[in-house]
Structures are given as C-alpha cells and as structure tokens.
C-alpha cells in the first residue's frame, strides 16, 4: 500500500479527535496548553471516539481502501455516508461532554472521593464567577486609587491574567461613600485600573 494512503488513513483516524479537542477549546474556559498537550488530548479523544464508534459498527471504519485492479495502479477510497454521520455525531457528543465537564466542574466526583481538591475550571477567577455570580449580579469593584464602582455584572474576562469586567447601570463610589451615577450603558473595567477586589452583593 502506498505511503500516501497510509498517511491518509492515519489522518482520517486522528481527525475526529482534533475536531473534538478544538470544539472543547471553543466552548470551555480552559487553562493554557502547550502544543504537545493539545496533541496528546486530541489523540486521547480519537481513541475514545473510535472505541465508542467500534462498539456500534463492529469494527468497520467509515471508509474502505479499495486495492487497484489491473491495468490501474491507483488505490481508491470508498466512503460510507451513514458511518461518517455516526462518527461525526459521536465526535460532537464527546466535544460537548468535554465542554460540560470543564464548565460544570466535573471534578466534583473526584473531590467527593478525596482524590483531588482541584476543580476542572481554569482558575479561582472562573470558579467564583461561574459558580457564585448570578445573572445581573450586583457587584462592587474596588480600584487601586481607593474608589469603587457599583453596578450589575454583565461580562468578565476568561482569564484571571486579564481580570477585566463590564458593569452596567454603574455608579462611582468615592472614599466617603458618595454615589455618582455613570452616564451611558456601562463601564469596562480593565486590569489597568488595578482591581483590588470584587464584592458580590445581594440584589
């Protein structure tokens, strides 16, 4: 069998895992990964996807390599649409499952078993905002100059290194406790404002 056909087979086998890993990256708040970590994760997804796929198809791949027939010397790949759709569905399910595991902190079971104290989320920044903050949560953001901003939390950054939040219906609160409404829809507070703390308040 030509090397190009073997390489194509390997690519087709690995592709679902890379697709699943990419979808998880899009849907979940993950920690930073090296290229090697991403390759290992994609290979693991490929193994799990095909292990599940084989259970439903009794070991048949979504394609067949047809050997050449004289006088032709070219190999031919025959695709099976139903199997491809099944493989795509399994890949999508694994991707969604991986994203839910991260976003909903799937490590809770291992925490119950005392196997780890780590959560599945990126950092404590994501733990607090995803678990504790509610929709239109009232927050008070204390800045480095002693002032603070009171309002409703609408958006927050994915990474704690950025530590930016967007607050609507916002007001300045000075050192003496005076409240000064901020005109406009809201204010974006970036890390350049030297955020000291963010208080989650009762509505």
Characteristic key phrases:
8 strands; 41% helix; elongated; two-stranded antiparallel sheet; 203 residues; SH3 type barrels; 6-stranded antiparallel sheet; alpha+beta; single chain; 5 helices; 2 domains
Short description:
This protein has 203 residues and is α+β, with helices and mostly antiparallel strands.
What does this structure look like?
- The chain contains five helices and eight strands; from the N terminus they run H-H-E-E-H-H-H-E-E-E-E-E-E.
- It is an alpha+beta fold.
- It folds into two domains: 110 residues, no CATH class; 78 residues, Roll (SH3 type barrels).
- The strands form two sheets. Strands 3, 4, 5, 6, 7 and 8 form a six-stranded antiparallel beta sheet that branches. It has a two-stranded antiparallel ribbon with strand order 1-2.
- Helix 1 packs across helix 2 and helix 2 packs across helix 3.
- The chain is elongated.
- The model has no long low-confidence stretch (mean pLDDT 85).
- InterPro entries: DUF6338 (IPR045919).
- Keywords: Membrane, Transmembrane, Transmembrane helix.
